[in-house]
Design a protein that fits this description.
162 residues; eight-stranded antiparallel beta sheet
């Protein structure tokens, strides 16, 4: 089940993808947020990505992202809340359009020498019951499309990497 409604309007999205690359390579790739444009849907324009790279526990990253066709960029500030090499990177939004955002990137080696990457996202929209309604009508579908595309592009990136 990719979604679940928690208490107080929290939602969960979880998706996994198998990548043709060793776990250390996939983990290192995700420590550099400047790689986000390589795996994000084409309608996401990264106006700014600022921070120290590779990220480490406690790092802050500032992103300004314009999601076309919206005419303005949204500012995100995320903090690296958990980091366990080479199996976990967790970012928590300190500033974002969401009331709550926690994104865990889990990595596990598979038997073929590749990596299973699982994105586990917990989020909540602002505006209480209106946010819950917006999530059910629009946002969870939008996030599902975004993560489906991110996984497709990540798989493609590692399939063509030297």
């Amino acid at each position: 089940m990719p979604y679940g409604d928690g208490m107080l309007g929290f939602s969960v999205l979880e998706r996994s993808v198998t990548l043709d690359a060793p776990i250390d390579e996939v983990f290192r790739f995700h420590l550099d947020t400047r790689n986000a444009p390589l795996i994000s849907p084409g309608n996401n324009e990264f106006v700014e990505i600022a921070g120290d790279f590779p990220v480490h526990l406690g790092s802050f990253v500032r992103l300004r992202v314009r999601q076309k066709p919206m005419p303005f960029a949204q500012t995100w500030v995320v903090r690296i809340a958990d980091l366990e090499e080479p199996t976990l990177v967790t970012d928590v939004a300190e500033r974002s359009p969401f009331a709550y955002w926690r994104h865990e990137h889990h990595f596990a080696s598979d038997a073929a020498g590749g990596t299973v990457m699982t994105d586990h996202l917990e989020y909540r929209l602002p505006l209480g019951p209106l946010g819950v309604l917006a999530d059910r009508l629009l946002v969870r579908h939008m996030l599902d499309r975004i993560f489906t595309e991110r996984h497709r592009r990540t798989r493609e990136h590692f399939a063509t990497a030297p």
